[in-house]
Amino acid sequence: MARPSLYTHEVAQTIVERLASGQTLREVCRDDALPAESTIRLWVLEDREGFARRYSQARELGYHSMADEVLEIADDGTNDWIQRRKESGETEAVIDHEHLGRSRLRFDARRWLLSKALPKIYGDRLNVDAKHDVSDQLADLMKAVDGRTRGLPKKAEPE
């Protein structure tokens, strides 16, 4: 069966609902009942029946859902440990480094994407409120050398 390519309100609504729930466009388009990614992106570019605005809003909501997922990944400790049988026949709990590495990758990838997609909310904040404090010692030094440097005319003394 061929994928649909004609724009309908029902298909568009399904797409934006799934995007808003946190699915990526690629995940949504794995459903054979929905159009291909290129078709949906074309609808956005052409802004079919206001689809561009709805798509953008859905993507933003989806990113917030992804932020919730980041916290779940960080808090989820299941499968961090596996049971391993010793030579003596006893079992012991050991860290599953593969699972921890995969969780870290999932966390970092989502965190990076969020920082780029919504930098005002999820990006690193830079402190640009620099304060320059001129000490009294520096002010005294500037008064002492005022007009006494080579090449600069001396100030005229008041008469």
Structural class: mainly alpha
The helix-strand sequence is: HHHHEEHHH
Number of strands: 2
Helix content: 40-55%
Question: Radius of gyration, rounded?
Answer: 30 Å
- Sum up the overall morphology in one term: flat
Largest sheet: 2 strands, antiparallel
End-to-end distance: 101 Å
Please tell me the overall pLDDT: 88
Q: Count of helices?
A: 7
Q: Report low-confidence residues grouped into runs of 5 or more.
A: none
Strand order within the widest beta sheet = 1-2
Strand fraction band? 5-15%
Task: Provide a compact summary of the structure.
The protein has 159 residues and is mostly helical.
Would you mind describing this structure in some detail?
- By secondary structure, the protein is mostly helical.
- Helices cover 55% and strands 6% of the residues.
- The chain contains 7 helices and 2 strands; from the N terminus they run ααααββααα.
- It has helices at 9-20, 25-29, 37-46, 51-75, 97-117, 119-122, 136-145, and strands spanning 81-85, 91-95.
- The chain has a two-stranded antiparallel ribbon with strand order 1-2.
- β1 and β2 form a beta hairpin.
- α1 packs parallel to α4 (51-75) and α3 crosses α4.
- It is flat.
- The mean pLDDT is 88.
Question: How would you summarize the topology of this molecule?
Answer:
Blueprint: H1 9-20, H2 25-29, H3 37-46, H4 51-75, E1 81-85, E2 91-95, H5 97-117, H6 119-122, H7 136-145
Antiparallel strand pairs: 1-2
